[in-house]
Write a structure and sequence with these properties.
Length: 502
């Protein structure tokens, strides 16, 4: 009879399924257990997908790829982004046939050179497809890609930015809209060799919205699928929560929110539903801040609303708490909350914890020159997180330690076209948010990456704002800094767990 060895490999693979694979040290031929004590090891493979950037012929898009230097990796590897299949047929309802679905480009659109140095690629117009990428070896741990698009005029004008995301099976987007002045798309991207089947649910102020074609949407292999929210429901609501769930396969998902008057940006997924949430990095010059929250469970949630400012926690006058009814989207306009100081919203339960998701919409600028961005509730930056596509001017790094003081190390990478990396350590006091004066690389040419590492204390949450003016039109975008999941914990083994079966 054949013998089958069952080992810890399956457990390690499951643990690292989202971002990569970690190697385990297994018992040697003599039967001696050589497994080390629990340790953090670099992942060996990462996957990211980037949504199709724009439907505007005026769009100018920059893709930036970066991997921080990580000890203990292999000496080789690669990180590449390739074009997804082009769309054909009616993509609005997610069920049009694709003439070339499943085809993959022979040549990478963007390929990394060395960890520690960003690489960029530009694209123009409305024909840029979704991108699908993988990184392995020394490029896998912490691999980060951003898509930044400048649109000079029309709906969504200004700067739109989004981090390319790891494919997953569930996403929550509080802050979307089906109002008449908004054009919101859910952009779905399937990186795999088989079709994915996706359901999209919409929730407004009174509960679930009646949808017509939100169930069983097919996303073809290696393809992107834009789903216009207004084709899913006839109801017009200012504040909507979008729930994307995958029946089979996996996808990357982001919401592109385009406003006729206030520009637009990407709405990234909120952190997973939790009793307490942090929305980091609200710009100090925000003219309007709107908080949108949703609880997917059967119980209402009551939240304390606090602003972590540079001097400590502040309670917004008149908005000390927020009541979120079960299954209904709640929104509150906080106005000019910031008053010229950096800040982050901290949401905690008033009594019992009920899982919620949340995001804020931020408006900057004056009159016809106003622009919008979205900041979702974020995971803490954990061990390490990275923001890419930073420019010599217009970059603001905001860090908050809402519960306990922390020390962090910030490293500015070499520039994409030249420059020397620089690092600096900062202390973030408990209950505060600080806009950090970042250590810009000396001799900078091109763009650079900012990598933030937790040295002690915490947890720390962060966000990076990038402000750019395009043909006289000011634009900005904000990306949060969740842990890059570049390391995976290998569980300790006290004995040989191999089992031999006859």
């Amino acid at each position: 009879m054949n013998r089958t060895t069952l080992s810890l490999i399956a457990g390690a693979t499951a643990l690292a399924a989202i971002t990569g694979v970690a190697a385990l040290t297994m018992p040697d031929a003599s039967g001696t257990n050589t497994a080390k004590a629990a340790a953090e090891l670099p992942v060996e493979r990462s996957s990211l997908v980037c949504p199709a950037p724009s439907t505007s012929d005026l769009a100018e898009t920059t893709y930036t790829s970066f991997t921080p230097v990580t000890k203990g990796t292999a000496s080789d590897g690669k990180a590449e982004l390739r074009s997804g299949a082009q769309e054909s047929g009616d993509a609005a309802d997610g069920k049009g046939e694709k003439a070339d679905a499943g085809k993959k480009a022979d040549k990478p659109v963007l390929a990394a050179k060395e960890p520690g140095t960003p690489v960029i690629e530009d694209a123009s117009g409305a024909d840029s497809p979704a991108l699908i990428g993988t990184a392995d070896g020394k490029f896998a741990p912490g691999w980060t890609v951003q898509e930044s698009t400048q649109v000079a005029a029309g709906a969504g004008r200004g700067l739109q930015g989004v981090n390319c995301t790891a494919p997953d099976t569930e996403f929550w987007f509080p802050g979307a809209s089906t109002a008449t002045d908004r054009t919101d798309y859910v952009q779905l991207t399937n990186p795999d060799d088989s079709a994915a089947v996706v359901d999209i649910e919409l929730y407004g102020k009174d509960g679930a919205l009646e949808t017509t074609v939100g169930e069983g949407i097919t996303v073809q292999p290696h393809a992107g699928e834009p789903i216009l929210l207004s084709t899913l429901t006839s109801e017009k609501q200012e504040n909507v929560t979008v729930h994307v769930s995958v029946r089979s396969g996996r996808v990357g998902a982001s919401v592109q929110a385009l406003d006729d008057k206030l520009g637009g940006d990407w709405l990234a997924a909120s952190a997973d539903p939790a009793g307490s949430l942090v929305v980091p990095g609200i710009p100090k010059d925000a003219k309007a801040v709107r908080l949108v929250a949703f609880t997917p469970g059967d119980a209402d949630a009551d939240l304390k609303v606090r602003l972590a400012s540079p001097s400590g926690e502040i309670t917004p006058a008149g908005n000390e708490t927020l009541h979120v009814k079960a299954g209904m989207t709640s929104a509150v306009d906080l106005g000019e909350l910031m008053r010229g100081e950096a800040g982050s919203l901290v949401l905690t339960p008033t009594d019992r914890a009920v899982p919620v998701v949340a995001a804020v919409r931020v408006v900057r600028g004056e009159g016809a020159r106003q622009e919008t961005a979205f900041i979702p509730a974020s995971r803490p930056l954990g061990t390490r997180a990275t923001a890419v596509d930073n420019r010599a001017k217009g970059t603001t790094l905001s860090l908050t330690a809402p519960f306990r003081a922390a020390e962090v190390k910030v490293t500015a990478s070499a520039g994409s076209e030249g420059g020397t990396a620089a690092s600096k350590t900062y202390t973030i006091k408990s209950g505060t948010t600080q806009d950090i004066e970042v250590p810009v690389p000396s001799g900078l040419k091109g763009t650079y990456a900012l990598t933030v590492e937790t040295v002690s204390g915490g947890p720390v949450y962060g966000a990076r704002m990038l402000a750019v003016t395009t043909e006289g039109v000011p634009g900005f975008t904000v990306q949060t800094l969740p842990d890059d999941r570049g390391m995976v914990a290998v569980p300790e083994a006290d004995e040989d767990l191999s089992v031999l079966q006859k």
